[in-house]
User: Fold these one by one.
Assistant:
Number 1:
Amino acid sequence: MTATAPTTNRRTASRAARRQQLIDATMKCIARKGMGSVTLGDVAREAGLSQGIVNLHFESKDNLLKETLRSLAGEYREKFDKVLQKSGPDAADKLRAVMQLDLGASICNQRKLAVWFAFWGEVKSRPTYRRICDEWDQRYEKVVAGLCDELVAEGGYKNVEATTIAYGISSMINGLWLSCLISPQTWDRKNAMAAIMSYLGNAFPEHFKQ
């Protein structure tokens, strides 16, 4: 049994690596052509593989797109959780770290955003996409609202509703992502972060100094 385990592990790793290769190729194709125009042939060519390999791993374009969205959401979730773990115990530090992640180059770049917005554009007619996006959106909003709630309690802020501030943060991030996608020549990462920090400074002046 011990002799066959390494072979099994290699096969499993190879399959996982091949699927990720095809998912990465799908993201590139969506960013370049839009979701509706992408074919399995496009993905195969982008990955440097045969279309038969794509069919073997995903069977259909719909399956490939669903797994691509799951991979994209999973990648963000992993980065998000890691940032929360590393940012220290203070709610202000955690919230600042999340904003830096959201506006950082690993998340806020044209290729990733083009893919995200392509999927978001389909959620109305694709229940599976909606479920995947809603699951993550709800967790994001819960975490951010929880951090805001801690700040309200710590600062003794009056007439500050944590869920309202969290909703504003989410809306600002989505708007800044859209600006980055459609106006890359004028969009500036530092200015975007400054806008978010100004919003947080107005909401929580004791925690985020202007």
Note: The two ends are 63 Å apart (CA to CA).
Number 2:
Amino acid sequence: MSAAIPARTVGHSIAAVERETRLGKDTLRIWERRYGFPQPDRNAAGERVYTAEQLDKLRIIKRLRDRGHRPAKIVNCTLGELHALSEAMVNSWPPESSASQPDFAAYLELCRQHQVEDLRHALSQALMRMGLQKFILELLGPLNRLVGDHWAHGTFAVFEEHLYTEVVQNLMRNAISGMINPNGKLLARPRVILSTLPQEGHGLGLLMAEAMFCIEGAYCVSLGMQTPVRDITRAAQAQRADIIALSLSEAMNPRQALEALNELAGSVPAGMEIWIGGNCPTVARVNQANIFSPTLGKLDDALQQWRLRSGTPDQQR
């Protein structure tokens, strides 16, 4: 009989921790050297192995960091202290409730009870009642963020977040498909290529942006998620795009996002613009003449400004 594996080697690999927490391997190694946490064990092959408690702590740290907490201030907090900070963050969203606001708690409870069809029906009814634009801005935006907060706090399992994401993605794809008019649509301006960068695995923001562009009369071509920068450029040129629209979530590594955006900005033809949106901190820090960061709520104004810059008549909408 083979010898039992020592208990200290049983845990999560660095790849698993990266996948579960959305913290890059480089970040984990840097924090290990700089802050002394996490301090993983090593297996027989010398590879890092993380405990379940370290994984839980890193998941909460990631969400708190995305909301503005500095790693130096929170990495060495106890798990209890991190839970308290996360609890305060969850309880503060949404800030107010009113008769006109969606019932966020009801949607969250459907996720927790794994009532997939009921969740799909409830969101579909809300879409029909509110209209697509209002549904995106007033319901999906806050609800996506709230689901993420509960995931970070541990009150949502990973698979529950995935169930929610799948329901919303299907709903948004159907809504977008219903807006496409095959007659004369190729003449619409602006022509928009949509994608995420190679390190970005979250697509809800991309679908929300595509729907908002369609509402405003743009012609959209989605490349899906995680497209290499070179291929984004090639697709944009092949489609004669006016705008490349990218979604950058909180999970995106800011340094990698900035490097990719700078590469993209230097490779697109003159006159082609790059529009970025999402909760990645890089969105607010990019300084390139051909990169813009309009919010979904102000997309109509941003497109009006684009039409003025490009000399495109508003009647083509």
Note: The domain at 104-179 is CATH 1.10.1240.10 (Methyltransferase, Methionine Synthase (B12-binding Domains); Chain A, domain 1).
